[in-house]
Each structure stands twice: as C-alpha cells, then as structure tokens.
Write a structure and sequence with these properties.
By secondary structure, the protein is an alpha+beta fold. It contains one helix and five strands. It has one helix at about 35-50; strands at about 1-10, 15-20, 25-30, 55-60, 65-70. The longest helix has 14 residues, at about 35-50.
Length: about 70
C-alpha cells in the first residue's frame, strides 16, 4: 500500500501529475471543485499514472480541501 501527499489545483488547462522535490505530488485537474468532480478526476489521474484501477485509489483525508492523503492499494 502506497500513500501520497497530494496538493490539488482545480480548473487547470490540462490534467497532469508531477512529483515535487520535497516528495509531495502536485495534481492539476481540469474539473472544478464542485460536487466531487475534482476528486473524481484526481482519482482517475493517479490511477492512470501508476497503472492501477480506479477502485485501488482512495482519498483517505482532505476530500474537502486542496491537500489530500491518497492511498494506492496493491
């Protein structure tokens, strides 16, 4: 099981995920932060990046904020 600390920036031009120098991840997502759309896109983006299924990725904390702890199951 892998845990990532992710800072999310919604309403971006392109969706992308990049690792920062301090070990955290920066996720830019196109979706707006309403009705969980940005969280859904974040889960899909992380699943695609790490080559896992969407149901293996879950937001453990920070679902309502920009800083999130995301867990990836093996």
């Amino acid at each position: 099981m892998k845990t990532l600390r992710v800072k999310v920036k919604p309403n971006a031009r392109v969706s992308e995920l990049e690792e920062q120098s301090d070990g955290t991840w920066l996720a830019r997502v196109k979706a707006p932060p309403v009705d969980g759309k940005a969280n859904d896109e974040l889960v899909a983006l992380i699943a695609e990046h790490f080559g896992v299924r969407r149901n293996q990725v879950s937001i453990k904390s920070g679902a309502g904020g920009r800083l999130k702890l995301v867990q990836i199951a093996d």
